[in-house]
Amino acid sequence: MRDHSRNDGDRQPTRVTLFLFATGIENSYPMIQNGRVRRDQMEECGHYRQWQRDFELLGDLNIRFLRYGPPLHKTFLGPGRYDWEFADLTFAWLKERDVVPIVDLCHFGVPDWIGDFQNPDFPTLFAEYARAFAHRFPWVQFYTPVNEMFICAQFSAAFGWWNEQLKTDRAFVTALKHMAKANVLAMYAILEERPDAIFIQSESTEYFHADNPKAIKSAEFYNARRFLSLDLNYGYPVNSHMHEYLLDNGMTREEYHFFLDNTLRHHCIMGNDFYHSNEHRVRADGGIRPAGEVFGYDEITRQYHDRYGLPVMHTETNFDQGHEGDEAVDWLWKQWANVLRVRNNRVPIVGFTWYSLTDQIDWDIALREQRGRVNPRGLYDLDRNIRPVGEAFKKLLSQWREVLPTQSVCLFVPVMLPSEYDEPVAARRREGWRRYLRHELKTKPELRS
């Protein structure tokens, strides 16, 4: 819903009230096989070759918001060294068409020269990259600096599937604290370039169910651990059990207090992702197995909102089309019903995303092996033909886009379209935020440029 009013010749910034309908380009790029193979989904799914066609599909769907980011491993070549060629092409197209990107800067992998998420230099190096990106593309307002920190740390350092391929609590905590610090430092760096930036943190929302009484203790541990990435990111004090767990596995008191002392939650929307695989059953021996959908998105999202008190956006979901051809359509309907339920329970939810625009490759095995299996869960297939769920998503948007804004005049996301970046009122708003941030940084010498 756009505000086209004028005031003394100034065009008012667009306000998208209440709801951001979005999709995304799958851009994971973790390493497997002990660092010998990189699973670059933008390559495997054809985006490098067909990026213009992919962007044109957004117009077919009437979608203006896109989760998207340049491949970190191809763009960040070394300290102070960048290859912006592909980003310049793609982001110029988005800007010209007034598409609002939610820019994903790190998606499950790092450049070869950094190594992996055990590298203690990663946070400061990544913040340098985030600052350089924001300086080059100052019209970009929305960011997800590090995507799904909990999942990335778990798959890389607890399950042994990606990147460092380790399987210890110490490796998990190390990866997680490095990603969380990278996320925080990147937010500060971006704000110095774009002081009215908004951060939509895409993170997996999980729940662990005890199979029997002997599994209760393990389930309680997992249900506390699931919050760690957001606890650190938002400066939320962990419970005593998690505090001991962090300290026992390599986090220092100084590292922990960095997160408590440097929160930017007032710039944040809590993006949460929910799939059929997000709920788990815990056995008596502590092992876990899939539970399917038990509580669902509504209940688990309310748990996360009760903890952090931030506006929410459903930032990822999908489902395979299935043998009957309508399984993904049914899942879309179920997720949307849950979104409305969250909203009706007075949780401020501001957006919904089907991820991703096209089918994916080997995500049914979390990219662990190169099988080349197409997962039919996109709005379009890899030939860029629309799937039934794409038609259903398009219809959902047309039916609900104009209804939701009329139900609230108080809650809005202050979206500024790329074309409005140079408007006088937009410049005044950025200057107001810039003065505020300068005041804040006076008390945080460790974060000054």
UniProtKB/TrEMBL annotation:
Q: Which UniProt keywords apply?
A: Hydrolase
> What Pfam families is this protein classified in?
Glyco_hydro_1
Instruction: Report the record's Gene Ontology biological process terms.
Output: carbohydrate metabolic process
State a single Gene Ontology molecular function. hydrolase activity, hydrolyzing O-glycosyl compounds
Domain of life of the source: Bacteria
| Signal peptide as annotated in the record | none
Designated name of the protein? Glycoside hydrolase family 1
Q: What organism is recorded for this protein? A: Microvirga vignae
